[in-house]
Every structure is written in structure tokens, then in C-alpha cells.
Design goal:
There is one protein chain. By secondary structure, the protein is α+β, with helices and mostly antiparallel strands. It is about 45% helix and about 20% strand. It has four domains: about 150 residues, C2 domain (Immunoglobulin-like); about 170 residues, Tetratricopeptide repeat domain (Serine Threonine Protein Phosphatase 5, Tetratricopeptide repeat, Alpha Horseshoe); about 170 residues, 2-Layer Sandwich (60s Ribosomal Protein L30, Chain: A); about 50 residues. Strands 3, 5, 6, 7, 8, 10 and 11 form a seven-stranded mixed beta sheet that branches. A four-stranded antiparallel beta sheet has the order 1-2-4-9, with no helix packed on it. Strands 12-15-13-14 form a four-stranded mixed beta sheet. The chain contains 24 helices and 15 strands.
Length: about 550
């Protein structure tokens, strides 16, 4: 912004450098060639600061050699003022430590900075000067040098973007109930005692409960027969098949005796040699040198080679034959069902009688649907204490981030045992809010999720590095990406990044149109935004982006 001073501003010094006989008007006229420029012409808030560069060119014989001048840049807005450091100058013959302005003419450049204060968006920058000569002061009329302040960067999500983790609560729970019958070595006969075993009695009892539970639907049953991995693959395959047949007959008898059970969807399977079960049983056992057995299983895939290698471990084989093989000579009855879980209202009703029996997903869902902030905090903390729930730790941290309690959020995030992409992103948000941009950038890069990419854009906007923000926004959609491109002057890319039609998106579209000089288009989008959002309507009244619309 250029100002040619042809009035009182910056002219009082002429009184000092001109003949006393000259009139005040004549002396003022001598200052007509003083030139003031401000860059930018319209001030802009960047990273919480308002920078400006003032350049003043004084003509020859303007500055009196024995005078000094104090110049205070002031940002004036409705309800207040922000002052920068007073600039001090002196003539050629003054013996002080101020910046010298030669009477032969000079150009002075000063970099200014104001800390952003809410309300200063609609403002102007002026220079206020006082001339001192021979113990007298000569006030100078203030000179307006720039308008301000563009605050478009504030439309970005400056506090960071993050999301809560799902509670894991399912509308339908898939469940299984199981019973089993055991066989003697090389036998496919079902002993009568097996039909009265603890396993089968419990299975029959559970089947009855399933059939009588109105929230449960029985989907089907698998009868699965096995043979222990001893005696050869082909032999065990046939033995497993025979066990499948005898197990099915046993199943028919069990369901016939249990009048409450409706037989549906029965599938019979024969596995043959149960190497998978063998490996699992060995891993859980107390057998000495069990690691050696597991290593053999990993080295050889051929069943015959496996069996031969294990038999060669005579002492170990004896223990296996006694403790492992008998548990693999079996048939399993596995009934699958679906439980219709409690809806939100039912869950709230159940909680009235206490939450001691709630599982982790139920506690997390209860916290999610609770309308009370304190209740959410209490439930998350309870889930942490009872289930050591990292999901509860994370969502509690998100609650604290929402409230601006950044330190508390960071503390809970730091206790999560295995940080995933969401945790890393949220940790980056904490660093971003704390001004630790190196740590924030590291976390966002490691996270790599959609929010972290968005936050990389936000971080560079907060830093005031709009070129880096636009680079990070390449290929991204949404408000942050669009704002980054607006701030970097990429209006085409800014338009492409906006895809939804929410009030904020329309407000951003209005800014893009206004910067293009498309006032009618800008007014259309601005009206659409303000109609739906009162906060945006209030913002628009002081948004200098729309200065042209008010004319």
C-alpha cells in the first residue's frame, strides 16, 4: 500500500528544517514526496501472528539533522489496539543510538509483527509519530498504511484432526457351545459312559438354554471327528471316518433325549490325523523338550516323517502317548448360534442395576451413548481398571483433547501398550498443540492414516508455511486441503478439494469466488453458508475476504 504524504503526517519536521519565516502550509508542502509502502497491503494472520513490512522513503532535506522521531505502529480494531515496538530515528547531527535518517534522503524498511488477538480481524494499521526538537514535542497526525486482517487460516482444524475408536459392541454376537465324546485307541465305538459324561451333560443343558432364549437363534451344528497322529495317515483317515459315523448316531440319541432341542443344519466332518490339535496340545503341555517336538513339526510337513521323527524320541514319545494322544481321539459337537444383543436403550436400562457384569464392549458402548461428560469419563476409567482397556484409554484421551486438556490426553496416550496409527496420530496432535512440530511431523509420518495426512497440512498452516501446507495437501480432499491451497494462492486446487455442501464448505467456496473477483458467486455461497450456520454468519461480518461484497 502506497501513501504520498501531502498533509500533516510526517511533515512537522519541516518546521525544523525550513526558515521560521515560512508559513506552516509551505513547510507541509515540502513533505509531499514522502513515500510509504506496506507489504502486504492487506494484512494476514499467519500462525497466530500478523507480520508486515513497512518501507518509508524520505526525500532530500526532509529530516532535520538535529531532530529525533518516535514512530509507533498500531493495529487499530473495534474494541482495542495492538502496538508494536516504537521505532526511533535521528537526524545526522544527533548524538544518540537511534537509526540515522540522512538529510540527503533515505529509505527505511522495518519488519513488524503483532500477536493475534481475537477481534482484530477487522482492523487497520496506522503509524503514530512524535517529533522531538530542543525539548519540545511535535505530534504527527496518524497515517493509515494498511487494512487487515485476513484470518482465513483459522478455518482449518488448528487443534488437529482425530477420531474415536469403535467400541466393538456388536448388534449380533456369534456364539458356540460344544461337547465331546472320547474314544479308546484304534476304536470307533462310543462307550455308554461318554453319553453321560460331564462334557455331554453340560452340552445338553446349554442346548436347552439356547432353544429357550428368545434372543438366541440356533444356526446349526458340526459333528467333527478326529484321529490322533499315530498309526499311519491312511489308517487314521478311515478311523476318523468311522468315528464320524458313530458320533452322528450318538448325536441323534442326544437330541432325541433332549426334547427342547430342535435339530437343524447338522454337518458331519472327518478330519483324519489331527496334527493341528497335536501341536496345540504339545504347546500347552508341561512335556520336557516340547520345543524340540514343535521344531520337528515346523521342519517336516509329511505326516509319516513327522510321526517317525517323534517316535525316535523314545522317552518323549512315551510321555506324548500317555498325555497327548488320548485327548486327540475324539469327536466334537459344535453348535453355533446368534445372540441378538441389547440395543442402546436396553443397555441403559440394564446399567441402572449396575455395570459390574458388563463386558468391555458394553462399557465402551455405554460411554459412547452417555449424554453426560462425567459419565463418559467414569465409564472409560472403569473399563481401564477392570479390563486394562487400551480402547478406553484412547477414547478418554480423545475426550480430553475435545476439552483442550492436552496434557491429560498425552498422559493416557502414553500408557497405551501397542500404539497403532490412530494413537500415533493423536500423539502427533498433542505435539502439534504443544508447538513441538518436529515430534508432530514424526508421529504423523509414522501413523500415515487419513487424519495424520490432514494433520500434516494443519501443522504447516499453523507454522505459517503455506507452501509446505499446499504440498502436503496434494491429492487430499476436505476443508484443510482447500484452505491450504487458498493460502498458497492455488484457487483451482482449492476448489477441487471441496466436495461436500455443508455450510463451512460453502463459506470456503465463497472465499475462493471472492478472491477470483466473482462477487455474485461469492455472495451466493456466503448466503447459503450463513443461512445454515449462525457462527459463520457472525464471522462474515468481520471477514475482510468479503470486503468487496459490502461495496
Amino acid at each position: 500500500m502506497k501513501r504520498i504524504l501531502s498533509f500533516a503526517a510526517f511533515t512537522a519536521l519541516v518546521l525544523l528544517s525550513s526558515s521560521c519565516a515560512k508559513s506552516r502550509l509551505e513547510q507541509m508542502q515540502l513533505a509531499k514526496d514522502v513515500d510509504i509502502k506496506c507489504n502486504p497491503e492487506v494484512l494476514e494472520i499467519k500462525g497466530g501472528n500478523i507480520p508486515a513490512t513497512i518501507t518509508v522513503t524520505c526525500p532530500k532535506d526532509y529530516f532535520h539533522p538535529k531532530a529525533t522521531m518516535d514512530v509507533t505502529p498500531v493495529l487499530v480494531y473495534e474494541g482495542g489496539e495492538l502496538s508494536s515496538t516504537t521505532l526511533q530515528y535521528q537526524g545526522d547531527k544527533v548524538k544518540d543510538n537511534f537509526k540515522v535518517i540522512s538529510s540527503a534522503g533515505a529509505t527505511v524498511t522495518e519488519k513488524l509483527n503483532f500477536a493475534y488477538t481475537p477481534g482484530c480481524e477487522k482492523a487497520h494499521l496506522e503509524l503514530r509519530a512524535v517529533i522531538r526538537y530542543k525539548d519540545k514535542e511535535y505530534p504527527v497526525e496518524p497515517v493509515k498504511v494498511a487494512d487487515g486482517c485476513i484470518a482465513t487460516y483459522q478455518l482449518a482444524s488448528l487443534g488437529g484432526v482425530y477420531k474415536r475408536k469403535p467400541d466393538g459392541y456388536k448388534a449380533v454376537l456369534e456364539r458356540t457351545t460344544e461337547g465331546r465324546i472320547m474314544y479308546d485307541v484304534n476304536s470307533d465305538k462310543v462307550k455308554a459312559s461318554e453319553l453321560d459324561s460331564y462334557s455331554i451333560e453340560g452340552y445338553k443343558y446349554n442346548l436347552g438354554k439356547l432353544e429357550n432364549d428368545e434372543r438366541t437363534t440356533v444356526k446349526g451344528t458340526q459333528i467333527v471327528a478326529y484321529a490322533s497322529p499315530e498309526g499311519g495317515k491312511d489308517y487314521n483317515a478311515k478311523l476318523s471316518d468311522k468315528r464320524a459315523g458313530s458320533a452322528q448316531k450318538a448325536w441323534d440319541k442326544i437330541t432325541k433325549d433332549n426334547k427342547e432341542v430342535e435339530v437343524t443344519g447338522v454337518e458331519v466332518k472327518s478330519i483324519g490325523q489331527d496334527w493341528e490339535g497335536f501341536q496345540e496340545a504339545v504347546a500347552k503341555s508341561n512335556i520336557e523338550d516340547k520345543d524340540l517336538i514343535l521344531r520337528v513339526l515346523s521342519m517336516y510337513s509329511d505326516p509319516a516323517v513327522r510321526e517317525n521323527e517323534i517316535r525316535n524320541m523314545s522317552q518323549i514319545y512315551s510321555e506324548i502317548n500317555k498325555t497327548v494322544f488320548p485327548e486327540l481321539r475324539r469327536a466334537r459337537f459344535v453348535t453355533s448360534s446368534e445372540f441378538r444383543n441389547y440395543d442402546n436403550q436396553e443397555l441403559l436400562k440394564l446399567a441402572e442395576n449396575g455395570i459390574d457384569n458388563f463386558d468391555e464392549p458394553s462399557l465402551l458402548r455405554l460411554a459412547a451413548i452417555s449424554e453426560s461428560r462425567d459419565s463418559k469419563e467414569t465409564l472409560y476409567k472403569y473399563a481401564i481398571s477392570k479390563y486394562d482397556s487400551d480402547t478406553a484409554r484412547y477414547n478418554l484421551a480423545m475426550l480430553y483433547l475435545d476439552e483442550g486438556k492436552t496434557s491429560l490426553a498425552g498422559a493416557y496416550l502414553g500408557k497405551i501398550k501397542e500404539p497403532d496409527a490412530d494413537v500415533l496420530n493423536a500423539t502427533g496432535v498433542v505435539a502439534l498443540r504443544n508447538g513441538d512440530y518436529a515430534q508432530a511431523a514424526n508421529c504423523f509420518e509414522k501413523s500415515g492414516n487419513a487424519q495424520a495426512k490432514d494433520n500434516t497440512v494443519v501443522m504447516n498452516i499453523v507454522k505459517g508455511d503455506y507452501q509446505a501446507a499446499a504440498r502436503a495437501a496434494k491429492g487430499l480432499k476436505g476443508h484443510n486441503a482447500s484452505i491450504a491451497n487458498i493460502l498458497n494462492g492455488n484457487l483451482g486446487a482449492a476448489s477441487e478439494a471441496i466436495t461436500c455442501k455443508c455450510p463451512k464448505s460453502n463459506y470456503i467456496r465463497a472465499i475462493i469466488a471472492a478472491r477470483k473477483g466473482q462477487t455474485e458467486e461469492a455472495q451466493k455461497y456466503l448466503d447459503a453458508a450463513c443461512e445454515k450456520n449462525s457462527a459463520l454468519k457472525e464471522r462474515a461480518t468481520r471477514d475482510i475476504e468479503f470486503a468487496a461484497l459490502a461495496k
